Amino acid sequence: MSQSETENAPAIGVESIKSMQRIIRSGLWLSTAFLLTLPLKAEILLDWSEVDAAVGSGGNHAGLVIDWNDGSAQDTLRWSIAWDQTPGSVADLLLALEVLDPRFDARFTDFGGSLGLFTDGFGFDAEASSPADYTGPQDHFQDRNGGWIQTFSFWYGAATDPAWTESGAGISSTQVQNNQVYGFAWNETGAFPAPPPPVVPEPLALSLLLLGSMKILHRRSQS
User: Fold this and answer.
1) pTM of the full predicted structure?
2) Which residues make beta-bridge pairs with 119?
């Protein structure tokens, strides 16, 4: 290779690298711009890292979401309940949670036979008072009091599902499954039962990664 060829080779290499950097930066900017036009929030039924209480022990877990719909600042609470042996039905899960979390209270009517337990109401006493009074600012209580208009509707789904499915079965006949979430929502009017609200995390990691990559490339191009 001649001396002139040797002198020109690095210059061509540098220009090629700079050109590639410009192309990559342009692509990253376009990708980030596209991501930022998409919704930054994705609904799921339950984010296991954002539950209000985690109880029990074992390699399996089920989620429980209760929406008291009482107009308070935080009228929806979420539990992660861990277990090893099969906990049985959702009714069994609720009864177990009463023992695992003394702040929680579940009330039922037992219709016996194949009908089993029917959900009358739920209470949450943040101070775990004995007896529970449900008068604190973080307390919740709703009960149908024998009526059939204002009741808790029953829902289920996988934790990563974008929407609930209303259950067509009762809590005594619905068997608890690993990584499933069970939800109850107080229905004030009895007309159109609404599910509990889903969790709305904000997955910004990919956008931040792209922005960070562009900053690194920008610094390198200035050096």
Assistant:
1) 0.71
2) 108
122 φ/ψ angles, rounded to the nearest 5 degrees: -135, 145
In a domain, 195, yes or no: no
Tens digit of each residue's pLDDT (9 = 90 or more) over 111-150 = 998 889 999 999 999 999 989 999 999 999 999 998 988 8
User: What helix, strand, coil percent values describe the chain, rounded to 5?
Assistant: 30, 25, 45
- Per the listing, tokens 């910004």 go with 204
Mean pLDDT across the chain, nearest whole number? 79
Q: Is 151 helix (H, G, I), strand (E, B) or coil?
A: strand
Nearest to 189 by CA among 147, 130, 159: 147
Residue 194 belongs to some domain of the structure: no
CATH number of domain containing 106: 2.170.130.30
**Which three-class secondary structure state does DSSP give residue 223?**
coil
Answer positive or negative: Cα dihedral of 178, 179, 184, 190: negative
Q: What range defines the domain where residue 10 resides?
A: 3-40+203-222
In a domain, 167, yes or no: yes
Q: 140-195, pLDDT tens digit by residue?
A: 999 999 898 889 999 999 999 999 999 999 999 999 999 999 999 998 776 667 88
Question: Could you tell me the two tokens for 150?
Answer: 């204002």
Determine, yes or no, domain membership for 120.
yes
One domain for residues 86 and 183: yes
Residue 17 and residue 93 in one domain: no
